Amino acid sequence: GFEVRDVHATQYGRVCPIETPEGPNIGLINSLACYARTNEYGFLETAYRKVVDGKVTEEVEYLSAIEEGRYVIAQANYALNAMNEFKADLVSVRFQNEFTMITPDKVQYM
């Protein structure tokens, strides 16, 4: 089941799971993550770098939890070569709140 203190998939990159009080209030008071922001409708968004043809660009886009469900997203600390391409043949990604491994050319954001 889902516990109050669990990190939900919609909180990734938006709510800091570490900066929280200790004791009975642990996980009940949330802080924004470093690169999170609130959009014009009041929804939390987080920053992602755009990936084109397996190459990570410098272009940064902000996505809400609803928007990011439509994209294939690699974790931010994945190893890249000097040309900003993924070093591995398969990349661990999140797509529609599920984790899987795919080829770098199918990654859309990091």
From TrEMBL:
SUPFAM superfamilies in alphabetical order: beta and beta-prime subunits of DNA dependent RNA-polymerase
Substrates-to-products reaction catalysed: RNA(n) + a ribonucleoside 5'-triphosphate = RNA(n+1) + diphosphate
Enzyme Commission code(s) on record: 2.7.7.6
Domain of life per record: Bacteria
Domain DNA-directed RNA polymerase beta subunit external: 48-110
Pfam families listed in its UniProt record: RNA_pol_Rpb2_3, RNA_pol_Rpb2_45
GO molecular function (one): DNA binding
Protein name per the record: DNA-directed RNA polymerase
Protein's organism: Solimonas variicoloris
